[in-house]
Design brief:
CATH topology of the largest domain: Alpha-Beta Plaits
Oligomer: single chain
Largest sheet: 5 strands, mixed
CATH class of the largest domain: Alpha Beta
Distance between the termini: 54 Å
CATH superfamily of the largest domain: Reverse transcriptase/Diguanylate cyclase domain
Number of strands: 12
Structural class: alpha+beta
Strand content: 15-25%
């Protein structure tokens, strides 16, 4: 039997809001929402003072203000958040190269073997959290467990600024009382289906025979059974390949297709700036994303014979994709996005281009 992996899930505490409170002392101790104020805005992050009132990320800004009239709105500054995220990533890299970022503010780390020689995964987690506090003046919570999904659940147990450890012999007891909705992949629909079978907790799920789970849910039934026992063999995957680089914007007032060109070109420039950081791969496909005034999402894409070589070319192709939108001319749109996808290895792309030149 191989030894269990030692996995950390590190999650920054109210990251965007905490950065704003760190950089502006007048915001400390106040309920803060990182969002533009207005009917069309959503909350990107909420400070813990705001969460007391029920304010949460992804909530419409107007709903957040209704819950907390004294809420302080701060417009997001993703350039600053990305800079802090890079600082945190550098701290992780002192301990292991096996880092799988999930977003700017959270990541999995495999610390089965470390660069530092610290005696345990717990000691490594404590060292990382201490370094984050000292070097960024921010706090992070961490979960330590034998696999990724357990570490992610554990990191939420002592938030904010906490550490929770699930050792291999504790896995089944740790999971048993949890609601099945805490398991990865169990959303509201699946939770309701399980509730109809009198399955509310992980212990209830574990009590149902594997054969019955498979009969009802197919291969997903087997996966549910494995999760109920704490089994998950997915490794930490560093440097996951980029699927798409994009930029998007929501408008204060809905616009027609003809009105969108300056916005598309501005977003193309943003997406292109992000694409310039891709050193090893090239993008072949241009994507235009639209959201209608009635919240329908439309995407149009094109893989041209020659890939775009500048922000202007990207903007030209994205603007032209409007012609593929088969809707009445007076239709209006609340959001537009421009992206690059269809990534391939740069060397193989060049070799293929040379072959057909």
């Amino acid at each position: 039997m191989s030894s269990p992996r030692k996995i950390l899930h590190v999650d920054m505490d109210a990251f965007y809001a905490s950065v704003e409170q760190r950089d502006d002392p007048s915001l400390r101790g106040k309920p803060v929402a990182v969002a533009w104020r207005g009917a069309r805005s959503v909350v990107c992050a909420a400070s813990y003072e705001a969460r007391v009132f029920g304010v949460r990320s992804a909530m419409p800004a107007v709903s957040a203000e209704r819950l907390c009239p004294q809420l302080v709105f701060v417009p997001p500054d993703f350039v600053r958040y990305k800079a802090v995220s890079r600082q945190i990533r550098e701290i992780f890299a002192r301990h292991t190269d096996l880092i799988e970022p999930l977003s700017l503010d959270e990541a999995y780390l495999d610390v089965t073997e470390t660069k530092t020689g610290l005696p345990s995964a717990t000691a490594t987690a404590e060292a990382i959290r201490a370094a984050i506090r000292e070097e960024t003046q921010l706090t992070a919570s961490a979960g330590v467990a034998p696999n990724k999904f357990l570490a992610k659940i554990a990191s939420d147990f002592r938030k904010p600024d906490g550490l929770f450890v699930v050792r291999p012999h504790q896995v089944e007891a740790f999971l048993a009382p949890l609601k099945v909705g805490r398991l990865p992949g169990v959303g509201k629909v699946m939770e309701a289906k399980l509730a109809a079978l009198q399955i509310v907790t992980v212990a209830d799920l574990r009590a149902l025979a594997l054969a019955e789970l498979e009969q009802r849910f197919g291969r997903w039934g087997r996966r549910l059974h494995e999760l109920s026992l704490g089994i998950d063999e997915h490794p930490v995957q560093p440097d996951r390949p980029t699927l798409q680089i994009s930029a998007e914007d929501t408008f204060e007032h809905d616009l027609t297709l003809d009105d969108l060109e300056p916005h598309i070109r501005q977003l193309a420039a943003k997406a292109w700036a992000g694409y310039q950081r891709e050193r090893e791969r090239v993008a072949r496909t241009v994507v235009l994303k639209l959201k209608t005034s009635d919240f329908r999402t439309l995407t149009r894409s094109l893989t041209p014979s020659t890939r775009p070589l500048s922000a202007d070319e990207l903007g030209d192709i994205a603007c032209a994709l409007r012609e593929r939108v088969e809707r009445p001319a007076d239709s209006r749109y609340r959001l537009v996005g421009v992206g690059l996808s269809g990534f391939v290895d740069r060397d193989s792309y060049q070799a293929q281009s040379d072959l057909f030149a």
